[in-house]
Please model this.
Amino acid sequence: MASVLFFFVLCYPLLYVLAKNPERHSSRIARCRRLIGWLSSTCVGICYRFNHETTIDWSRPCIICANHTSNLDITAMVLLCPADFSFMGKIELLDNPVTGMFFRTIDIPLNRKSNISAFKAFKRADNNLRNGRSMVIFPEGHIGEEFPPHLYDFKNGPFKLAIETKAPIVPVVIHNAWKIFWDDAKQFGSRPGTVLIDVLAPIDTAQLTLEHADRLRDEVHALIKKHWNKTGGL
Model:
């Protein structure tokens, strides 16, 4: 949206300097992103209401898994998690002037058509988690073309990663972002409103092995679908 680009441009001189040493300044880059997200949403009348099923210990690295129907989902995750984290997302995000800045510094681009790229991306994510940095991964891997949207099958990668690093999974249900701003809003536009988000209880993976990855994937999918169906995505 235009408001994101506007506030990004205002912050760009600072981000440009910080991006010269992203490892040293990762927390400052993350704070800039959080500020851009909050300002750009507020100025167009979009806000976010988080309903926590239980208290989350954000000091412990985790993998946040959310359904994905709107570009607002990115801002929702930025505002949800107060700790430093990285997104993992499609490599095409490097071409976007806003997301490109963050995917060249603190986030992890993934080319799903390349096994080598996928291996390197998940290796970086593994290192992040082992070094105390959480990950946000949309396990559907894309925003669907159907309107109204539905929940797609989940990829296995995030769940194998969680088991290998013993990081808990935090399932997140974003209910109605698509009604306010579907996909990139080019087709249906956008409007002011409140995005409703359920943050479910973390799922511990400490006792799981890779043999349990499919079961974990299906469990998280079922939980998100159950909460999504309560409102029909409304």
